[in-house]
Amino acid sequence: MSSDPLQGKRILIVEDNEAALEGLTLVLRRAGCTVMAVTDGGAALALILGGFLPDLVLLDMMTPGLDGWDFLVERRGDPRLAAIPVALHTSLGVASEEWAAGLGAIGLLRKPVQADRLLDEVRRFLRPGPVG
After folding, report:
1. Which of 69, 107, 114, 120 could share a disulfide with 87, CB 3.0–4.6 Å?
2. Beta carbons of 88 and 68 less than 8 angstroms apart
3. Domain residue spans in the chain?
4. 60 exposure class (CB count in 10 Å sphere: 0-12, 13-18, 19+)
5. Nearest in space to 91 (alpha carbons), one of 15, 13, 30, 29
């Protein structure tokens, strides 16, 4: 039995780039996570409100339909959603840890992210207490 804190964690990935989505999913599943993957914020909201309660959402900011900003606005307005930690996964040049925190996220992963860094950061995001 693994003592890896990722084992059994539920991760929701919101990513419209198929290659990035497949890569993130593969790495996290190999680490023992249960992964659900969707291509926009609207599908993520529907999944969560339908009963899938992730331990973490990895959120791409620029998706078709309901984008990352809209997802974060919806999240703030619903206590069930606000309780779920969100980490931003983006290639936006303006992105910084401070920017992510200002949007209500617990952290930031810059695209493209290497597998080891992804796992290290997701472990950090899932630790109890403040991230940092």
Report:
1. 107
2. yes
3. 10-114
4. buried
5. 15
Q: What is the pTM of this model?
A: 0.92
Q: Would the pLDDT of 74 be above 50? A: yes
Name the least confident of 10-24, 32-46, 82-96: 82-96
Among the four given CATH numbers 2.60.40.10, 3.40.50.1970, 3.40.50.2300, 2.60.40.1930, the one describing domain 10-114: 3.40.50.2300
32: left (phi over 0), alpha (psi -120 to 50) or beta: left
- pLDDT at position 131 is 55
Indicate the length of the chain as a whole number.
132
